[in-house]
Amino acid sequence: MARAANRLTLVGLTLLAALGSPGLHGQNLPASSDVFPAKPIRWIVPFPPGGPSDMVARIVGQALGVRIKRPVIIDNRGGAFGIIGMEAAARAAPDGYTILFGAPGTVVIDPILYKLNFDPLTDLTAVSQLAAFNFILLASPDFPPRTVPEALAAAKARPGTVTCGSGATLQQLGCELLKIQGRVDLNVIPYKGGAPAMNDLVGGRIHLVFDTPNAALPQLQANRVRAIATTGRERNVGPLGHLPTVNEALPGFELLSWFGVLAPGATPRQIVERLNREIAGVLGEDELHNRLTDSGLEVAHGSPEAFADLLVRDRAKYSKIIREAGIRAEGEGGARGSK
């Protein structure tokens, strides 16, 4: 009896050791919400450093790291309009230790325009929305037009010479919609991220860019670029709420966006909920909340289900816009209007 009991004890200890170490076939077992997080979290930002997504990720990531008492490491994976970084997140271990910074261009529009090796709506899971915002149509200080009608007139007078840069898919969609709805021949130039596009705008190498408020404000305050319009349906509040809308010149023009957090699709539900709660706590901190709103972003948080519903609605909305506008993919990362 004693020997049998000892053998059972040895088997039990061996099983416990196995459960506490890498699982069968060398894969890690899902983390328990009771001990999560037990190590640093990698936050993939699918754009180069310095852009608007990177700015928000670093602000929120630093505060999140303090809150969970574990470092949140920003991993910039730029290229192919966010597809490279997004696929890296989709293929990562679903243990809560890899998350993705998401925006409509990558999560919603890329699958419409390009044939991907994965589907963000099934291979990623929604964790939390972070912010919502309109884009700002910016002009180089050397570009004479100061309104949307003047910019369209310049493009009509010199077909193909007025340039519109884009560092992300939704920004490119803005250029294409301006081109199509304005019935002008804009030269749409893709970039690997928002920061390179902004650098060329400041340097006068391109004429126009649709960019996020948090990226636009520092450049506007330094008089390095000029704001022409916002992309909301109506004029709004905030530091750039006084600007006219593109919709006033081109009725029906609207380009809304958001930032959010996603995780690999099989991440355990309890880990997703834990991350959602911690992000809610961070967004509720006065200092961080004020930093985001002062930069022109609207803080937005909800349940994982609410964010997942937003992704589905946006997929349907942008599929309709892209189909009706005749926009199709071209080459590695651009898109163009066919009419």
Report on the structure:
Strand 6 (163-166), helix 7 and strand 7 form a beta-alpha-beta unit. Strands 2-1-3-10-4-11 form a six-stranded mixed beta sheet, sandwiched between helices. The chain is globular and about 65 Å long. Helices cover 44% and strands 19% of the residues. Helix 2 crosses helix 11 (269-283). Mean pLDDT is 86; it is low at 1-31 and 331-339. It has helices spanning 2-19, 52-68, 83-90, 104-113, 120-123, 148-157, 169-181, 194-202, 213-221, 246-249, 269-283, 286-294, 304-325; strands spanning 41-45, 72-76, 98-102, 124-134, 136-139, 163-166, 187-190, 208-211, 226-230, 256-264, 298-299, 327-330, 334-337. 45% of the residues are buried. It has 339 residues and is an alpha/beta fold. The longest helix is centred in the C-terminal third of the chain and has 22 residues, at 304-325.
Secondary structure elements and their pairing?
Blueprint: H1 2-19, E1 41-45, H2 52-68, E2 72-76, H3 83-90, E3 98-102, H4 104-113, H5 120-123, E4 124-134, E5 136-139, H6 148-157, E6 163-166, H7 169-181, E7 187-190, H8 194-202, E8 208-211, H9 213-221, E9 226-230, H10 246-249, E10 256-264, H11 269-283, H12 286-294, E11 298-299, H13 304-325, E12 327-330, E13 334-337
Parallel strand pairs: 1-2, 1-3, 6-7, 6-8
Antiparallel strand pairs: 3-10, 4-10, 4-11, 5-8, 5-9, 12-13
